[in-house]
Amino acid sequence: MRPMSPASAPTSYTVAVRALCEFAAKTGDLDLRFTPAPTARQGVAGHQAAAARQGAHYQAELALAGQYRHLQVRGRADGYDPVAGRLDEVKTFKGDLARLPDNHRALHWAQAKVYGALLCQQQGLASLALALVYYDIGSQQPAAPLVQVCSAAELSRFFEALCEHFLQWADLELAHRRARDAALQGLAFPHAGFRKGQRDLAAAAYNAARSGRCLMAQAPTGIGKTLGTLFPLLKACPGQGLDKLFFLTAKGSGRGLALQAVQTLRQAHPGLPLRVLELTARDKACEHPDKACHGDACPLARGFYDRLPAARAAAVALAAGQTLDRAQVRQAALAHQVCPYYLGQELARWADLLVGDYNHFFDSHALLHGLAQAQGWRVAVLVDEAHNLIERGRAMYSATLHSAAWRAARAAAPARLKPALTRLQRCWAALSLAQSAPYALLDGPPAALCNALQTASAAIGDYLADDPASLGPGQAPLMAVYFDALQFGRLLESFGPHSLLDLTQQAPAGGRRRAPESTLCLRNLLPASFLKPRFEAAHTTVLFSATLAPQGFYADLLGLPANTAWVDVAAPFKAEQLQVQIVREVSTRYADRAASLAPIAHLLAAQFERGPGLYLAFFSSFEYLQQAADAFAAAHPQVPHWRQGQRMDEAERAGFLARFTPGNLGIGFAVLGGVFAEGIDLPGKRLIGAFIATLGLPQVNPLNEALRRRLQAAYGAGYDYTYLYPGLRKVVQAAGRVIRSLDDQGSLHLIDDRFARPEVLQLLPAWWALRQRPGQAAPQALQPPEVVKA
Questions:
Q1: Does residue 86 contact residue 59 with C-beta atoms inside 8 Å?
Q2: What is the per-residue burial (b if ≥16 Cβ within 10 Å, else e) of 209-244?
Q3: Peptide bond preceding 550: is omega within 30 degrees of 0, i.e. cis?
Q4: Over the chain, what is the mean pLDDT?
């Protein structure tokens, strides 16, 4: 849904038929009880099959459009038979059609009637037969159609009533859009001036929006990247006709920074008419995690759509003066007794700036991407700490199956499912027993197991479709493996050079003679093919981070367009602010770690004695961290230290960071690439130095070696893309915790002889400048890196 002519003052509003009906005609409960729905591919195939059963005169996917007052309505009717004078609304389904909720069927009739009104208006028909055609994808047969014959006048009255209801909202939206665009055109930077480098970043982001290109922006920590990208894209909204701006992050800390930047803009521009929504994960927004999502179980689902209009209006009114963060959405939802999570999903349609996780746009079932496509939005996307998108993209399009989970599902399954699950278990056992190693790379999808998996998945789906009421707490294992199988099956359809299958096995306890527990993982190694369409769907995407070099590495693996712009913003810091020392006489290679512990402990203590304060020491793994911390504590018990633990919760992470307060002293031991190595801000005396006892290179193992071979074949840079670039990125990110402002001073110890290699030095930030760039004459002011002994 969007106003027309967004670059000027809009006077008309355009809405899709489905969106109009969902807004104005949807009533009753929120009902998310399991109903096995066709996949998108099955839905398309079902529509095509239904159309193919008609004669040559049948018109499928008939484009229709019409107008009521200043509301433009458009859509595509599923099919029209001009000979029979019948308009079809086709819906695919699985299972027992009698279980279709009444409010779903009422919505389907509403869509049929709106399409009917548009067709009568467009072709001057006096009456029309409307048919709901429910096509069963299981039997590949349509159910008997439900038919109503309506006069054009009757359909027109229905259409006009729906439009009249929607226009009450659309008029408010038109007024908001005019006010929003006027305010954004006059938006001024909220500070007296830009920080050094921040203006360059802002100009590049604004120009990317004007040209409709993607932008990769490498900009150092401390220049204000969040505000430096958010401000120019908000400024670009009116001129470029942007409907929405998505600010996407990998971590909650990034969302917090975005919301803080919005607050800064609001303080500088009181009354700024900008609707800002923070999207929250379902598990964090659910008020009743012990209840199912339907009206018979959850009070916030009962009558949800009846109370939604008032809750929506109240929340949007609230958004006029403040950000709808998680707490505000919850407050608005509970005031009207509706589900906070699904209220947030609804509000995504009406917000201007949406702050959420990467998966809200890039995942296969992404909310924001789906809405943008359905509503025809023109969107801009900001990707915070974009270096994380490679690993997140891999994870989004990978799938894992666990033999233990399927064994538990078989134990809990009803008798009719036992044969299919038993066959799957036997195929899995055969595969496991054929592999003698704990870890094995498979040549391709194992045909027998994949066929058995497909059969078992179909059997579970049919069972649930026939009797969804039988689902209870005891069926949770069955549901879990069913959804895992669906994801695995979808990705199996696109298996190719970007994919890899591996099997990890654990021998049964006690030496029992049975197949080992195993995990089958379908990995997406090269996420470019999945992410590329998302970049193409946006008007502009700005990806920014302190570590986006080398440019080609990220452009290749993310699937960025060939015309993507690039800016490398110079750091505002001076070389003398950070004393960088390369410790060449210590090796942190795995074979040398035991010998490295005492020298590292001595180095940390010596630096602490020279400059007492707060430090972070980074190691390649939790095991290495514990060994180093134990050696340090034994040799230097007088120096306070604390350690990052595995799987720390939010309170434990906060406690770790709370030690970094002015006036405190000590060394925090952390894992490179972990939660304390990026995304945290410890300015001034809260952190005066860091030790990095690793190059961060990923472990050499069969999986990474397979990745190296794939990347070598695809891009000719297998080692660099697999090991060197990801490792050095983590080093630079961790080092970036030390200097956060123009006034900060600190030290950095890079502990390993390999840091002095030319190919490593050239990947370190230029402003560190305590070394000579390979192949370049050093300016007079520069010196080679200081090399110290531990």
A1: no
A2: beeebbbbbbbbbbbbbbbbbbbbbbbbbbebbbbb
A3: yes
A4: 90
Residues 44/137, Cβ–Cβ less than 8 Å: no
DSSP type of residue 742: T
d(CA 66, CA 422): 56
Q: Please report the pLDDT score of residue 299 as a whole number.
A: 94
Task: Give, in order, the Cα–Cα distances in Å from 286 to each of 291, 329, 371, 609.
Answer: 10, 12, 22, 50
Cβ atoms of 457 and 485 closer than 8 Å: yes
Which helix (H) or strand (E) segment is 62 a member of?
Answer: strand 59-68
DSSP state letter for 137: T
Q: pLDDT at residue 755 above 90?
A: yes
**In the block, residue with structure tokens 């996780």:** 357
CA distance to 145, 210, 217, 354, 362, per residue, from 214 (Å): 48, 11, 10, 19, 15
pLDDT digits (tens, 9 = 90+) for 123-156: 999 999 999 998 887 778 888 889 999 999 999 9
Range with lowest mean pLDDT among 30-44, 306-320, 433-447: 30-44
Alpha carbon separation from 770 to 580, 597, 615 (Å, rounded): 7, 26, 21
What are the percentages of helix, strand and coil residues in the chain, rounded to 5?
Answer: 50, 20, 35
Cα separation, 363 vs 393, whole angstroms: 8
Cα gap 466→238, rounded to integer Å = 51
Whole-model pTM over 0.85: yes
353, 522, 541, 555 from 389: Cα distances, Å: 20, 19, 13, 11
**Three-state secondary structure call for residue 264:** helix
Give me 378's structure tokens. 């023109």
542 in Cβ contact with 566 (< 8 Å): no
CB atoms within 10 A of CB 374: 13
DSSP conformation letters of 486-552 = HHHHHHHTT-STTEEEEEEEEPPGGG-SSPPEEEEEEEES-THHHHHHHHHHSSEEEEEES---SHH
What's the rounded Cα separation, in Å, for the pair 244 and 349? 9
From CA 679, how far away is CA 664, in angstroms rounded?
Answer: 22
* 545 in Cβ contact with 387 (< 8 Å): yes
pLDDT of residue 782: 29
d(CA 86, CA 130): 6
pLDDT of residue 584: 93
- What CA–CA distance (Å, rounded) separates 194 from 182? 23
Q: Look up tokens 């490179």; give the residue.
A: 672
- What is the secondary structure of 386-434 as a DSSP string? GGGHHHHHHHHT-EEEEHHHHHHHHHHS-GGGHHHHHHHHHHHHHHHHH
Tokens 């049975």, residue?
514
Instruction: Compute the distance between CA of residue 226 and CA of residue 100 in angstroms, rounded to an integer.
Output: 46
Compute the distance between CA of residue 425 and CA of residue 514 in angstroms, rounded to an integer.
12
Q: State the pairing for strand pair 86-93/141-142.
A: unpaired
Q: What is the mean pLDDT of residues 407-433?
A: 91
375 touches 383 (CB < 8 A): no
Q: In the structure encoding, which two tokens stand for residue 603, read together?
A: 């180095």
- Closest alpha carbon to 669 in 639, 708, 641, 696: 641
For tokens 């009753």, name the residue: 28
Q: How far apart are CA 393 and CA 358, in angstroms?
A: 9
Cα–Cα separations (whole angstroms), residue 612 to 536, 604, 606, 607, 609: 52, 11, 10, 8, 6
Tokens 């707060």 — which residue? 614
Which amino acid appears at position 573 of this protein?
A: F
Is beta strand 666-671 parallel, antiparallel or unpaired with respect to 614-619? parallel
- CA distances to 137, 269, 381, 570, 725 from 190, rounded to whole Å, are 56, 8, 22, 22, 36
